[in-house]
Amino acid sequence: MSGTVEPGRIVEQAAAGDEQAWETLVREHSGRLRAVAAGFRLSRSDAEDAMQATWVALVHHVGALHSHDRVGAWLATTMRRNCLRILQRQRYETPVDDLPALVADRAAAVDCAVVTAELAATVWRSVGLLPARQADLLRALFADGERSYQEIAAALSMPVGAIGPVRQRALHRLGLLLDETGVVPADLGLCA
Predict the structure, then answer these.
(1) From CA 150, how far away is CA 53, in angstroms rounded?
(2) What is the largest CA-CA distance in the chain?
(3) pLDDT tens, residue by residue, 77-96
(4) Is 59:34 a contact under the CB 8 Å cutoff?
(5) In this structure, how many other beta carbons lie within 10 angstroms of the beta carbon of residue 188?
(6) pTM of the model as a whole
(7) Rounded to whole angstroms, how far apart are CA atoms 57 and 41?
(8) What angle is formed at CA 60 by the lines to CA 78 and CA 66, rounded to 5 degrees?
(9) How far apart are the C-alpha atoms of 134 and 111, rounded to whole Å?
(10) What is the mean pLDDT of the chain?
(11) Which residues are CB-contacts of 178 (< 8 A; sequence separation ≥ 6)?
């Protein structure tokens, strides 16, 4: 193939499986693709990966190109997209050297979540052992989101002035129940 063959014809020949046409396409456009990769400041291996992905994309789409004489623009656009994918992938990858620390951090977070869930279950089981009025008040105060004392008092048919003393007795009794289960107040702030 000589340089006198028009680009559209070379693409048609490549689409038909002409190996020499493919070699011509690679020879004529590889420099342009390297320049695109250089603009993204990719490492040599990442640039090669992006180029390989670009050529593979052309192999898969060469027959569907609308304008064969614009193959250079198509390759440059595809190369830019592949470079962006590589850069985006790098944002979410963790270097192997940092992996043990990351795994340890995530393991600690999982441990903390498990301990917190177990403590919460123990606390709520203990709340269930309180007298009904005290248990209902603690559930209303802590499980139902932020509600005013007036709303809680109305829901529990309790005077607003009784909420503080009933809450104090409930928390004291809850503390005793938790002591019996081995949960100490310091455990409740374990993962804070």
Answers:
(1) 65
(2) 97
(3) 999 999 999 998 877 765 66
(4) no
(5) 15
(6) 0.47
(7) 22
(8) 70
(9) 32
(10) 84
(11) 122, 123, 126, 184, 185
Average pLDDT over residues 119-137: 90
Distance CA 55, CA 25 (A): 10
Kind and range of the H or E run holding 109 = helix 99-127
For the record, the structure tokens of 44 come out as 């040599």
Question: Token digits for 108?
Answer: 């600690």
Burial 169-178, CB ≥16 within 10 A → b, else e: ebeebbeebb
* 47: region left, alpha or beta (phi > 0 left; psi from -120 to 50 alpha): alpha
User: CB neighbours of 117 closer than 8 A, spacing ≥ 6?
Assistant: none
Q: Kind and range of the H or E element at 79? A: helix 71-92
* Count of other CB atoms within 10 angstroms of residue 185: 9
> CA torsion angle for 37, 41, 46, 48 (degrees, to 10)?
30
Backbone angles phi, psi at 16, to 5 degrees: -80, -5
Q: Which amino acid is at 114?
A: V
